[in-house]
Specification:
extended; 100 residues; 2 domains; single chain
Length: 100
């Protein structure tokens, strides 16, 4: 049987997960750098998915509580009326009607 859960301090969480999350930030920076370097960067930056990504980074940088929920909501379709049909629709990971 596993030992009981031990509550961690914020410093212990920082020690344990810093390197892993540093690598994630470097992956994000690399992704954005690739977009900047290639032909069609201006068109890509006008895309709703890029805009949603940048908006999520702004939330990440903010001091708002529950950043995870706020970012998830920023990617989500906020409409409440159902569609007549979803035939032919694709999932893009971000809502095209989101804030710009």
């Amino acid at each position: 049987m596993a030992p009981p859960y031990q509550k961690m301090t914020a410093s212990e969480i920082l020690d344990l997960y810093f390197i892993e999350n540093r690598a994630r930030l470097l992956d994000i920076a690399s992704f954005l750098d690739r977009i900047d370097r290639y032909e069609g960067a201006d068109e890509a930056k006008a895309d709703f998915r890029y805009q949603a990504f940048v908006d999520a980074i702004d939330i990440l940088k903010s001091s708002v509580r529950e950043r995870t929920a706020a970012i998830q909501q920023s990617f989500s379709d906020q409409t409440t009326e159902p569609l007549d049909s979803a035939v032919g629709l694709k999932a893009f990971g971000a809502w095209e009607g989101g804030k710009r």
